[in-house]
Structure of C2H2-type domain-containing protein:
Amino acid sequence: MSSKYPYDVDEASSDEEDTGTVGINLAALAPGNPFLQDILHRLVVKFQRSQTPLVFEEVEVCFNPMSSTTRECALHKKDGSGPCLKKYGRLDRSIYHIQSHLGIKPYECTGCPNPPCTAKFSSLNQRETHKNDAENYVRRRTLLVTEPPTAVNLERILDLAL
């Protein structure tokens, strides 16, 4: 069956449970636009199957081009209070934005010193920040336990806290 979309997303079979839109009101994100609602549904189902981040070719239909480098989000806010209208010049930021509308967080915590950590993130940068924060927290606790605060090491402990 050929797809009417510029990307390849498998059709969800009728006997599969539709868990792709749990907690997401696609009608509120694209009111009066069943075509866009269908695309959003397919993106969520695709993510649930593959657990991979979206790519711009999949989400570009969610934007109104403003210029050759700037695009504006055509989706509505999750609460249905009106159009989002956020503007983006970078492709990666546009993808993260659409993933946030759909509740997609493809990056799981890895290497965190606080296992079992089940945190998920919408960007690699968020995941790295989480990992670094957790590592710094462990370092601070270790210093405080092994070396009681003194005038000599207090400055080093405070440097790690920042």
Observations:
- The chain has two domains: 26-104, 120-161.
- The chain is about 45% helix and 5% strand.
- The two ends are 56 Å apart (CA to CA).
- Residues 120-161 form one domain.
